[in-house]
Backbone:
């Protein structure tokens, strides 16, 4: 999982294909990890597994996710320039107006960009995790 996190294309290379592949692989590995963890009987082994999970999360996954660039993603999908700029500004204003606390601002910003009515549905349909979330309440 740490290796996958380190290989995720971030920054200017952020793109939907890489995100979809990453989410699918991490979901499968996470499910396998959870099954393995649940089957462990010894607390010492569970502690060791938790340490590896925390290392992956704090030293690899969190940095990869922070490196995703929603502007690069939209540019790579050729979203209309006017809609693109408007979406970014509107999303930033919504985060400010909603009083989102510091640690959730990046998440709220990306969520707003992708959920405000300025994004073409054809783009949102390309993101597999967005399609899955429509079915989860």
Residues:
């Amino acid at each position: 999982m740490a290796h996958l996190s380190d290989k995720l294309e971030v920054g200017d290379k952020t793109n939907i294909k890489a995100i979809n592949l990453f989410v699918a692989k991490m979901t499968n590995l996470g499910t396998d990890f959870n099954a393995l963890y649940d089957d462990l009987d010894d607390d010492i082994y569970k502690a060791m597994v938790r340490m590896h999970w925390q290392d992956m999360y704090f030293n690899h996954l969190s940095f990869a996710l922070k490196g995703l660039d929603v502007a690069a993603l939209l540019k790579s999908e050729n979203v209309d320039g006017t809609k693109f700029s408007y979406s970014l500004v509107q999303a930033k204003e919504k985060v400010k107006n909603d009083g989102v606390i510091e640690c959730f601002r990046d998440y709220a910003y990306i969520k707003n960009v992708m959920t405000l009515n300025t994004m073409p549905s054809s783009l949102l349909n390309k993101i597999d995790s967005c399609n899955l979330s429509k079915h989860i309440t």
About this structure: The chain has a mean pLDDT of 85.
